[in-house]
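Justification of resources, computational component.

The compute hours requested in this renewal are based largely on the per-chain cost of generating structure records like the one below. Each record pairs the submitted sequence with a full structure-token output. That output is archived, and it is also reused by downstream analysis tasks.
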Amino acid sequence: MLSPDTFRQSYSPALPFGRFCWNVSLLSMASILPFLFVYVVSTPNFAAMLVTNSTALGRFLRQVMTNGLPVVFIVNYIGFVFAHNTLNNPDRSEIGYIVLDGLLRSATFIAIHILVYVLSADLFGSFGGNRATAVSVVGPTLERSFMFHNISGVYLYAVVPGAFIALLAVLTQRSGETSDTSKSKTRNIALLFSLVSIPGVTVLSYALNSAT
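The structure output for this chain reads:
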């Protein structure tokens, strides 16, 4: 079961750098896989295509490894660093941390998508090899990802476990919980606010789409 100690023992930037990155990588992939399975089996004929078409399977796996994993890893990495700094900064308010954490994760999610799309245009010839086209499709792609209309929905929901771990660690320390009731309340609050990046990405994507 996840607990505040999960953060301190496995996801604190105070750990050796290599171990920290390895743990964040494992968490990121473990967070992606369940939602990836849901996406594959819920998309009509998609699973059959992957099984029968090796080219499609290769491109799909490349997309996960070069887009999904980097996005989720970087969002988790930055979120854990921010949580660590907050734990060491008693002057930062709980509400301030929650708001900034949601905004930071949402903005990072979109920014890394833009970077990955541009690099895909350069390295793989995606989007006709055109950087401007790559940037222009980020908003429309992400604004409906919360409905699993595309694979970016997998990555969007995959950032939730990392957010929950970080929020639970911060809120538990701030609350100084002692009873089972207060622990349960803190876990519920952490779970609720770990979902903030979903509407956050959606709103920011609409804004990006309007701007481009």
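The chain has a mean pLDDT of 90. The first helix runs from residue 4 to 11.
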